[in-house]
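User: I'm putting together notes for a lab meeting next week and I want to include a structural view of one of the chains we've been expressing. I don't have a solved structure, so I'd like a prediction I can at least talk through. The sequence is below, exactly as it appears in our construct file.
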Amino acid sequence: MRNAAATSTARTPSAPTDTAVPLDVRLMRSGANALLVLVLLAGLVVLGERVLRSPWFNLRAIHVEGEVAHNSAESVRRHVTPLLQGSYLTMDLGQARAAFESVPWVRRAAVRRIWPHDLVVRIEEHRPVAYWAREDTDDLLVNTHGELFEVNLGDVEDDKLPLLAGPTGTSLQVMTMWQTLVPVLAPLKQRVERVELTERGAWRVRLERGTLLELGRGESDQIVARTQRFVASVAQVTARFDQRTIEYADLRHSESYALRLVGMGTTPAAPRPGKGH
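Assistant: Thanks for the context. Below is the predicted structure for the 277-residue chain, given as structure tokens.
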């Protein structure tokens, strides 16, 4: 008979599980862990604030690039520096851009950081093409985009800018009409001094010798057609009256126009070219 060897296996006691730990102990451990996390976060916040406020990150230089025809880089910095808030790290670039765009003559500014202490701003200045008439106050200026802007008018170097006028919000429309009519009126050899869009939508033009043209209402191509008809024949009309200067011309007639010459009354309506005079 074979005797089977008896084997025994040793069992080690298992580690206590969470369910074996009393509830109050588990809560105490969780609270201690949470407190530790809060202390670490608070320390990081304090450290971060100290870093952000460190004098090492103070703004040290502002580099001005782009168009500075009416502003020097130094005048831009002098105007803007008191308006800038925060350090290199904390400065709001949107607010910084607004500060630069508050400088007279500045139309648009693009601001960026240069590590670790500098700002670079690229400036686009307004380029004036005309004055904009306002009642009971100083005129504004119109830039090449048809936008209105306000500066010291004594800083304007071009003394031959035209005067534009119209209802609120029409500066681009009036500027475009002025640009369209200048080459059309060039054969008259008089500079266009004023272009106006009335509240009723009618166009008026005044030339440098005081000639007033009533162009009436209509689309741009209609206004141009009337003006071209006038320019094409007016020299033949004024030749009959010793080339007297035109004081007033009414171009609103469908097939003709009426003239008032200096020193004379209104002449009969001049016919369209090709229909005789």
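A couple of points you could mention at the meeting. Residues 1-10, 272-277 have pLDDT under 50 and may be disordered. The radius of gyration is 39 Å.

User: Perfect, that's what I needed.
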